[in-house]
Amino acid sequence: EAGLVEHEHPIFASASALLRQSLEENVVRLVKQVELGLADGAENVDTLKEAEDEVKRALGAARAAGARAPQLAALERLWKRVHNGVEDLADSIRVFCRIRPFNEAEACQNEDRVASLIDPMTIEVTERRDDSEGK
């Protein structure tokens, strides 16, 4: 149907050609941006997720604009690469330690607090000095 409209109305053919050219330019720009981010070793999951979302949007726009299979294949490969980068980075985040809260019994025995919570992702460890052992 889109082909009929383009043949019947030259203005639509011109608009369609401009849209395809703009799409191709945007895809090239997006590929370069994502490649640079991946080459720089993007270590922020959120940054990679944003790139993944942008590639998904570009892929949807490309399909809607009637992009050809090679263009779609390039975007799909790019999306897969970014998606895998997100998964790899997310998988590398692990719990390094767990600290139970300071309890009442420890407080009654005048135990020292050796760690305190700074924020949900950060703790502060207090160095304990035991003068009797010279440490």
Characterization of the model:
This protein has 135 residues and is mainly α. It has two domains: 2-92, Methane Monooxygenase Hydroxylase, Chain G, domain 1 (Up-down Bundle), CATH 1.20.58; 104-133, no CATH class. The protein is 64% helix and 7% strand. It contains five helices and two strands, in the order αααααββ. The chain has helices at residues 2-8, 10-39, 45-64, 69-92, 104-108, and strands spanning 115-119, 122-125. A two-stranded antiparallel sheet has the order 1-2. Helix 1 crosses helix 2. The longest helix has 30 residues, at 10-39. The protein is rod-shaped.
Structural class: mainly alpha
- What percent strand? 5-15%
- What characteristic shape results from the CA principal axes? rod-shaped
Note the gap between the termini.
Answer: 83 Å
Number of domains: 2
The CATH architecture name of the largest domain reads Up-down Bundle
Summarize the amount of helix as a percent range.
Answer: 55-70%
Topology, number of strands: 2
List keywords for this structure.
about 140 residues, mainly alpha, two-stranded antiparallel sheet
